[in-house]
Amino acid sequence: REEALKSRDEFIKLASHELNTPLQSLLLQAQMMKRDLNRSEGHIPDQKLTKYLSREVSQVNRLTHLVQDMLAITRLGKGVIQIQRSPLA
What we know:
mainly alpha
């Protein structure tokens, strides 16, 4: 039981770190966009806006994959997902 609690705590620590990284990146991008809007009287050049949005989409995709992986791990632990092993060619 103690080992299970230790494993759970380690997983939560790792998951928190992995989720926090893209969230901080999204926050930074939003702050930079806001700063640029304030400096340029509400207009950001299309190229710069595209760059910001591309980075934000990338971080949202990263968060989505992390959450999907976490859900898959919980399903695996409950026996909902079964792994079928086969030899590699």
